[in-house]
Structure formats: C-alpha cells, structure tokens
Amino acid sequence: MPLIYKICPRALWRDAEAAGRFDGAPVDLADGFIHFSTAAQVPETAAKHFSGQDDLLLIAVDEAALGETLRYEPSRGGALFPHLYGPLPLSAVTSVTPLPTGPDGRHIFPGSIKG
C-alpha cells in the first residue's frame, strides 16, 4: 500500500485522537489543505519546516484510503506533493511513530525512510 506522511507535534496529534479526526496544523488550516510528503520527501520536509523541534510524531497514512480528497500538486521546486482537501480520518492512519532528533539536531526516521 502506498504511504504518505505527516509530521505533527505530539500534543496536536493527541487532540486529533480525542476528536476522532485530524483537521490539520495551523499551516494546513491557513492553506486550505493538509500538507503531506512522500517517503522520499519527508526528510527534507522535516529539515525545512521542523528543524530543531522535538516531541514530533511521524504519521503514516494509506493514501488509497483518502480517495478523491487527496491530490498531488506542485510545491517545493515543482515537485508533486500530496495535499488532502478535507479532514484526515484516523482510520486511514497505519502508524504513529516518534520522530526524535539525533545529536546533530537532525530527525531520526524509521528504517523504511532514508533521512
């Protein structure tokens, strides 16, 4: 199953779990869609937008479960990024993994993602 990823502060994700859905982070709400990254894109997303931040989670999502509300659109450097136009149903989430930082300040990704 193809997966896409969302980096999320732990507290914000806990709120989503309590609500039963994720409506997005402040940047998502401002842009009108939830930003995601592919496995190849997520390390750069972490470095660019979450540098030095701790207490983050890496949310893996089954993109097929999102249907037509998921669109790949040009973003950073013209690359196509997944954008979700609507709330993220928690039923589409396949895993929630801590995203710690290493001694060099870079985030440490699970083995399936090359950071």
Automatic annotation (TrEMBL):
Organism of this sequence: Methylobacterium platani JCM 14648
Protein name as annotated: Dihydroorotate dehydrogenase
Top-rank taxon: Bacteria
SUPFAM superfamilies (UniProt xref): ADP-ribosylation
